[in-house]
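Protein record
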Amino acid sequence: MKGNLKSFHLLLIIIFFTITSCATTTFTSVWKDEGFNGPIDNVFVIGVFKERDNVRTYENEFVKQLSARGVNAIASYKEFGSGKLPEKKAIVSKMEELNMEAVLITNLVDKERRRVYKETWSQNYSHYYNTSYRTSTVEYIDDVYYLETKLYELRGEGLIWSALSKTLVLDKVVQSDVKEIKKFINFMVKKLSDDGMLKQF
């Protein structure tokens, strides 16, 4: 009996962690330049989002995780401020000044919201009759984010790696934007490393 209870408790723990980590990212397509001889040692990080707070959070976290892998990374907002990014020429000039060899750019391509409805039946009673009627209520709402991440080598301004990704955030999982950004970047950094763009750990 005790053994069954332990197994049941273990199952509950597994289910709990599965539910609370349901914000998932998957790749819809990945491309890399097979002729590129990596890894990259210096990266300029750019996040292109409407919310400037998300830009700073994104760039800071990417710099943090890249630095942990021995990469010298710099956030663009620290060089250009929190306003609108300058033209390409100014960015290239700044990268040359900082001795950056590549730029990593992520932008939000699209976002959609999925509403899941649950139908319920209710009884309506009166003195003369009773009837049933159907109602629909929103059970939960999921957000789906489509992002494009590209890595360009400064020399020749050539694209050496790109990925389209899809991130599903379930409404039942209440987490901050910071946590979701961290998980997304961790996913991206691992793929960049696996594809030989970064140092292997």
Strands lie at 24-32, 42-48, 72-75, 102-125, 130-153, 158-169.
